Amino acid sequence: MSFLTVEGLTATYGSSQALFGVDLTMAEGEVTALMGRNGMGKTTTVKAICRMIRSEGKLTLDDVSLHDLPSYKVARRGVGLVPEGRRCFAGLTVRENLTAAARPGAWTLQTVCALFPRLGERENQRAASLSGGEQQMLAIGRALMTNPRLLILDEATEGLAPIIREEIWAAIRKLKAETGVAILLIDKSVKELSSVSDKAVIVEKGRSVWSGSIAELTPEISEKYVGV
Fold first, then answer.
1. Cα–chain-centroid distance for residue 27?
2. pLDDT digits (tens, 9 = 90+) for 129-163
3. Who contacts 219 (Cβ-Cβ below 8 Å, separation ≥6)?
4. Model's pTM, two decimal places?
5. What is the CATH number of the domain that holds 213?
6. How far is the CA of 212 from the CAs of 60, 206, 208, in angstroms?
7. Which range of residues forms the domain containing residue 74?
């Protein structure tokens, strides 16, 4: 039985249809790369999973339909989102951002700051005063503080300096190696995605056009559907 099942997913923004049939399955503890060029439906798929947009088709977590749930109840069922653009609470401190939506579990202030020591060093600073990379770490830490079973990272390294990107990829590798959390990754770096993911799903024009193990993702397939 799949942990997350997405079958024939369609979604609309008002009267405009954005998804025309996305299929995706994930097992517990699995890392899946959701790939495709810009504007092909990756973030819309994430919004549908998190119930932030109207959608139809099969969408279940532990065989429970997510269509029947508002977004906050999807979060309570164990879905943690790191949205594109970070979206930290600018006026709150690092500590306040981390504890705002915290739920009981292994992830605490101490464990998050062990994963990202910079957050511990800046615990009492307002989020608005952090660098872009530090805000991204804060967004990831905030999602982990909900103690999710499925962590969704939407462009978690976009626009960051190389040294910060490597810190975040190292954290993702650590999460894979040491926790049982399933991770759905969206990123432009095929190289990094290939180094950490178990499998990939590629979307084009709102449809799934390829899926398979990451070892089966050849340069030709990548160039056809992901390359610029």
1. 15
2. 999 999 999 999 999 999 999 999 999 888 888 99
3. none
4. 0.93
5. 3.40.50.300
6. 20, 18, 11
7. 1-78+191-228
